[in-house]
Amino acid sequence: PRSIYLTRHGESEYNRIGRLGGDAPLSENGLKYASRLQNYFEKEKINELRVWSSQKIRAAQTASKMAHIAQHVEYWKVLDEIDAGICEGLTYEDFESRYPKQFGERDKDKYHYRYPSGESYEDLVARLEPVIMELERQSNVLVISHQAVLRCILAYFTNQNRDDLPYLKVPLHTVIKLTPKAYSCEVEMFKFDI
Ligand code: F6P
């Protein structure tokens, strides 16, 4: 049976200080995770593994470690993180203090809330449709992307509803292995201690 593997990039310098979005490089811990991920896939010996990464630096750095193991490493802009518009580079605290009304609106309806000059989860689901269609057709694929994007992909393969989707747990330094069964997917999580 084939599997789809999902992982966020390793911890970035922005993750460390709690800033949203941006294009920061990996932190020291993030670099360690990239190596651990490489070891994991070396041991798994997966047939014809394809790797699809976002075009953000933190994802590409994580994916670069997979170059020897994978058949292809491709960089897709559609896998980039949700565009937080005017909130890019802010922490959640900055967001709440600068735009309290917006912050409240997002809390009320996180799925539909669209960042000014940015995207909503609903927008993201539409953006990811072609990726999901392609994932349905492929054999073994590792997707290296971001929290919000991976929530959308995970929700699709595990039939979760819109209200739960923006809150699904997709932690850092964890591989989520999805193995399609008749009507849903088996989900396994592998957490790496860094
Ligand atoms: O904090 C990391 C991050 O990937 C941000 O870049 C992004 O805006 C956020 O997570 C998405 O999570 P949430 O929708 O819960 O804010």
From TrEMBL:
<feature type="binding site">
    <location>
        <begin position="8"/>
        <end position="15"/>
    </location>
    <ligand>
        <name>substrate</name>
    </ligand>
</feature>
<feature type="active site" description="Proton donor/acceptor">
    <location>
        <position position="81"/>
    </location>
</feature>
<comment type="similarity">
    <text>In the C-terminal section; belongs to the phosphoglycerate mutase family.</text>
</comment>
<feature type="binding site">
    <location>
        <position position="58"/>
    </location>
    <ligand>
        <name>substrate</name>
    </ligand>
</feature>
<feature type="active site" description="Tele-phosphohistidine intermediate">
    <location>
        <position position="9"/>
    </location>
</feature>
<protein>
    <recommendedName>
        <fullName>6-phosphofructo-2-kinase domain-containing protein</fullName>
    </recommendedName>
</protein>
